[in-house]
Amino acid sequence: MDLMELVGVRVRERRVHKGWSPYDLARESRVSQATIWRLENGAKRRVDIGVVRRLALALGTSVDYLIGLYDLERSRQL
Predict the structure, then answer these.
(1) pLDDT tens across 33-52, in order?
(2) Distance of CA 29 to the CA centre of its chain
(3) Residue 69 phi/psi, 5° resolution?
(4) Domain that holds residue 31
(5) Closest CA to 39 of 14, 19, 57, 62
(6) Number of folded domains in the chain?
(7) What is the pTM of this model?
(8) Do residues 51 and 35 lie in contact, with contact meaning Cβ atoms separated by under 8 Å?
(9) How big, in percent rounded to 5, are the helix, strand and coil portions of the chain?
(10) How far is C-alpha 71 from the geometric centre of its chain's CA atoms?
């Protein structure tokens, strides 16, 4: 799995965990629904770090988690 696929998977997992639709995430993060859809479905090959940051803030996680530097379980133990 490449980096953008991982980001998309983690964004979707966190969004679903919060019980949000893509619309909810778009509203909370100020990222377009189209960008969220393309990211979650592997169609987006590049994304600005500012977008990843806004998604992370809205989802209550970190950029480090979304890009795969660590997972949530490990971060809770630190």
Answers:
(1) 999 999 999 998 899 999 99
(2) 10
(3) -70, -25
(4) 3-77
(5) 14
(6) 1
(7) 0.87
(8) yes
(9) 65, 0, 35
(10) 13
